[in-house]
């Protein structure tokens, strides 16, 4: 125990949640092979965080501040289950996501082994790392303070942006599918101010949860987790990969990039992409 922090109990928690994350991904891999598409892992992403949070809540009984434990055990599954339900509804009836085909094409060889390593095992590791603030916060005995309140506020902003952005885009796609003259690019509502309100919201979610872990110096060490999430959302599998795809398939998307902020919501203007 360091400065009143139960490091041994946290260590046990980290081992168990690592096994939980791996189990979730192994089960998802089996389902993907049966269904013939790897995009099912997108649904599992949010469910995996919920599983880690609930496992941590059970393991941390008697170790951390009750209010802090309850908050992270509630906020994480609320986010994860909403995201999983949204993606499941969005992907229903569709085939494989082209991003997974491109990813596996970059790793020639046995596609099943490649898929498990580069999709499922990788996502399981990232899930576990990003969830570190959830796990550490559950073992902090310090009562909630103004930093915690700030974290809840940022989480709420993120959840609102992500939920509203997803809802607006779903309505746009539905109206366009029904023949309404909607154009090819969603550029109204939150999408007028940022090309990715859902990704911006996702980032806020994890910075908010990180602040809930900031009641102890051990929690501050988990800043790597939201930083990793930001990097993935902006530079790797999120914004960058999606925009490469949309720029090639959607007329007018390049003009949309030029006038709309790439991440942080800002007033639209003409000029080069930010």
Explain this structure.
There is one protein chain. The protein is globular and about 60 Å long. The protein has 274 residues and is mostly helical. It contains 12 helices and no strands. Helix 1 (7-35) packs antiparallel against helix 2, helix 1 (7-35) packs antiparallel against helix 5 and helix 7 (146-177) runs antiparallel to helix 8.
Structure in a nutshell:
The protein is mostly helical and 274 residues long. Helices cover 69% and strands 0% of the residues.
Task: Give the topology, please.
Blueprint: H1 7-35, H2 41-59, H3 66-91, H4 98-105, H5 111-130, H6 132-137, H7 146-177, H8 197-212, H9 217-220, H10 224-235, H11 239-249, H12 253-259
User: Ends: how far apart?
Assistant: 46 Å
Characterize the overall form. Answer: globular
For the largest beta-sheet, the strand count, sense and barrel status come to: none
Poorly predicted sequence stretches spanning 5 or more consecutive residues: none
Which oligomeric state applies? Answer: single chain
Q: Please write the string of helix (H) and strand (E) elements.
A: HHHHHHHHHHHH
Secondary-structure class: mainly alpha
Q: Please compute the radius of gyration using only Cα atoms.
A: 20 Å
Strand portion, in percent? under 5%
* Number of separate helices: 12
Number of strand segments: 0
Please, what is the average pLDDT? 89
């Amino acid at each position: 125990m360091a400065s009143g922090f139960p490091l041994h109990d946290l260590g046990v928690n980290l081992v168990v949640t690592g096994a939980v994350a791996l189990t979730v991904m192994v089960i998802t891999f089996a389902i993907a092979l049966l269904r013939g598409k790897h995009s099912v892992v997108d649904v599992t992403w949010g469910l995996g965080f919920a599983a880690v949070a609930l496992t941590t809540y059970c393991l941390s009984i008697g170790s951390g501040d009750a209010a802090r434990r309850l908050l992270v055990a509630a906020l994480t599954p609320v986010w994860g289950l909403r995201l999983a339900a949204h993606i499941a509804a969005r992907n229903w009836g569709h085939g494989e996501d082209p991003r997974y085909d491109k990813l596996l094409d970059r790793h020639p060889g046995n596609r099943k082994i490649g898929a498990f390593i580069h999709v499922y095992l990788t996502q399981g590791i990232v899930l576990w790392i990003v969830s570190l603030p959830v796990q550490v916060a559950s073992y902090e005995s310090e009562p909630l303070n103004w930093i915690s309140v700030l974290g809840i506020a940022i989480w709420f902003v993120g959840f609102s942006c992500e939920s509203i952005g997803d809802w607006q885009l779903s309505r746009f796609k539905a109206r366009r599918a029904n023949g309404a003259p909607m154009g090819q690019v969603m550029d109204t509502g939150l999408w007028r101010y940022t090309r990715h309100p859902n990704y911006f919201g996702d980032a806020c979610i994890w910075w908010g949860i990180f602040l809930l872990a900031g009641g102890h110096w051990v929690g501050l060490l988990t800043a790597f987790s939201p930083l990793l999430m930001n990097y993935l959302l902006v530079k790797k599998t999120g914004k960058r990969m999606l925009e490469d795809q949309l720029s090639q398939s959607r007329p007018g998307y390049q003009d949309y990039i030029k006038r709309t902020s790439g991440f942080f919501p800002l007033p639209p203007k003409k000029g080069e992409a930010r």
